[in-house]
Task: inverse folding
């Protein structure tokens, strides 16, 4: 199994702040590595080191077996970078942005134009190709940014929070694109603040906190550690909360918690429990205004792994 | 949107083509140029601003310094041409400072191109701004009654020399742009450098009227020589000396500030 990229003991300090405190990441070729963590955990710094934009203070990073510091120029021929903030030129059109990248990647002007047209079509931007990027919607800018990262047909693609700030429909579009990249054998490093996203896309997840990897594994392994999924029920009539709690408790075999305001939640190991809860609620004629089965939030993951809330860390940072 | 991204199964390694730095710099220069043309309000400092300067000097100082506004215009215009193009060069430093922290420069850094290409591209793209500055200033001068006393070819040489001088000096502003945190800081620092250079000259008053210490500075100041060269080429008089001095100082600025600016860019993260 060949590793597409790897970091070992990566340390990066900015003045007194330690952004990376010994980070080990690795992804076999053709897999998606999800790097999960709150703001300020060091995700972007790790990406910047792997993208040859930052030199690590200690440790080393390789892409395709090449050291990112010593062989930066060769590494740059293998990678595609999509930034946390759409890093396209606002004043240029979609086509101009992509043609420029193509020319900088040593394509001939004709080839660069053809490649730009091809990518714009694939990303649903053909109609907007001649418009300045500043007129694009948030979702369109992300797609253009991603397209810009793919002009050189890179074998490793870094996606730094590609869906942060996108509405659910746009996020689903982006997920499809990421899945098709992976299906084509591209190795993807995806940073995200959402366990749901990492779960949906990644083969492996590294949870990062304060510049350290605090958990590592497949999505299934990680979810096992943090307790699988949670059922949430909000009866339409708050008076029936106790009935609902008894019913859910009977199905799941565990007493539900009530975090307040007419809601009960209970962790479950399997999703068949959810079907059963729905059926029984219907039988007992308890109508609900909210009923969901969801993965733990990043905050819950952090609470489980570190005993602290992600929010507190952000405030402390 | 279509959800399949058609790609080559095994990504073909990008082949390298020769003269990369030249091609990449030109491609990035075209980017700068396109951006300038799309945002004409960014051309105010090379169109309206120099005209306002000319009007102020000619009609406020002309009578006092030269006895007539017409004579003063002949005296002022070839010299203020140098100041105008130098100010345009300062904007390169300010714009780069604005641009550099945006994601698009990160993308340039992640591409297999020469580290200096984005800087060279920006400076080359700004040559178009110099051209606009020269044309609008000369047009304004001709409208007000300025007349070239040599020949069109010498006047063209004056413009080209001035542009080359300002281009070389603009690398100093690029360096400042790389070292300062904010565009405001770049502008402030650049003015501190610019004012003694452009006003410590015979641009608005003849050198003989200045105090002795200031005359010494004028004789040392490379900008004063560039202004003398421009005057000689447009109005007549011995041109060889000031032209040689200007070429020499231009090459010197380029040789010192361009490498320093590139180094500062590489160190900036």
Result:
């Amino acid at each position: 199994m060949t590793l597409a990229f790897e970091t070992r003991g990566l340390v990066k300090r900015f003045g007194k702040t330690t952004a990376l405190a010994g980070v080990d990441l690795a992804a076999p070729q053709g897999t998606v590595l999800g790097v999960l963590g709150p703001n300020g955990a060091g995700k972007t710094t790790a990406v910047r080191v792997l993208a040859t934009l930052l030199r690590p203070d200690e440790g080393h990073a390789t892409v395709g077996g090449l050291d990112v510091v010593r062989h930066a120029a060769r590494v740059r021929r293998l990678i595609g970078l999509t930034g946390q903030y759409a890093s396209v030129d606002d004043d240029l059109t979609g086509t101009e942005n992509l043609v420029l990248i193509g020319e900088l990647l040593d394509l001939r002007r004709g080839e660069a134009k053809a490649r730009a047209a091809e990518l714009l079509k694939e990303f649903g931007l053909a109609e907007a190709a001649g418009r300045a990027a500043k007129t694009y919607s948030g979702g369109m800018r992300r797609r253009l940014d991603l397209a810009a990262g793919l002009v050189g047909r890179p074998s490793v693609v870094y996606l730094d929070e590609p869906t942060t700030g996108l509405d659910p429909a746009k996020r689903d579009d982006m997920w499809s694109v990421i899945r098709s990249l992976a299906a084509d054998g591209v190795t993807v490093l995806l940073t995200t603040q959402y366990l749901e996203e990492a779960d949906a896309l990644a083969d492996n997840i590294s949870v990062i906190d304060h510049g350290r990897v605090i958990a590592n594994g497949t999505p299934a392994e990680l979810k096992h550690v943090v307790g699988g999924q949670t059922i949430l029920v909000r009866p339409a009539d708050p008076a029936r909360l106790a009935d609902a709690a008894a019913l859910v408790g009977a199905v799941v075999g565990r007493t539900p918690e009530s975090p307040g305001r007419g809601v009960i939640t209970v962790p479950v190991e399997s999703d068949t429990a959810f079907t059963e809860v729905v059926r029984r609620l219907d039988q007992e004629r308890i109508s609900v205004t909210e009923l969901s089965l969801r993965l733990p939030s990043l905050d819950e993951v952090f609470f489980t792994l570190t005993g602290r809330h992600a929010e507190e860390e952000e405030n402390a940072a | 949107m279509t959800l399949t991204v058609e790609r080559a199964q095994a990504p073909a390694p990008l082949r390298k083509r020769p003269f990369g730095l030249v091609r990449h710099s030109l491609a990035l220069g075209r980017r700068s140029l396109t951006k300038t043309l799309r945002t004409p309000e960014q051309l105010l400092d090379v169109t309206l601003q120099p005209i306002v300067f000319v009007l102020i000097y000619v009609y406020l100082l002309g009578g006092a310094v030269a006895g007539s506004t017409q004579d003063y215009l002949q005296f002022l215009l070839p010299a203020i041409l140098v100041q105008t193009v130098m100010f345009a060069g300062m904007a390169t430093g300010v714009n780069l400072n604005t641009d550099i922290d945006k994601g698009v420069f990160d993308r340039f850094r992640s591409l297999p191109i020469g580290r200096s290409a984005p800087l060279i591209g920006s400076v080359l793209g700004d040559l178009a701004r110099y051209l606009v500055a020269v044309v609008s200033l000369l047009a304004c001068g001709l409208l007000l009654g300025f007349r070239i006393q040599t020949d069109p070819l010498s006047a063209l040489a004056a413009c080209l020399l001035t542009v080359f001088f300002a281009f070389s000096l603009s690398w100093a502003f690029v360096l400042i742009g790389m070292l300062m945190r904010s565009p405001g800081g770049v502008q402030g620092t650049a003015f501190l450098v610019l004012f003694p250079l452009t006003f410590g000259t015979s641009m608005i008053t003849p050198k003989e009227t200045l105090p002795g210490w200031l005359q010494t500075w004028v004789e040392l100041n490379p900008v004063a020589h560039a202004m003398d060269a421009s005057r000689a080429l447009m109005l007549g008089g011995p041109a060889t000396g000031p032209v040689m001095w200007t070429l020499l100082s231009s090459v010197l600025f380029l040789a010192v500030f361009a490498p320093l600016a590139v180094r500062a860019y590489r160190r900036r993260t």
User: Anything to note?
Assistant: Chain A touches chain B through 49 residues (CB under 8 Å). The longest helix of chain A spans residues 168-183. DSSP finds twelve helices and 14 strands in chain A.
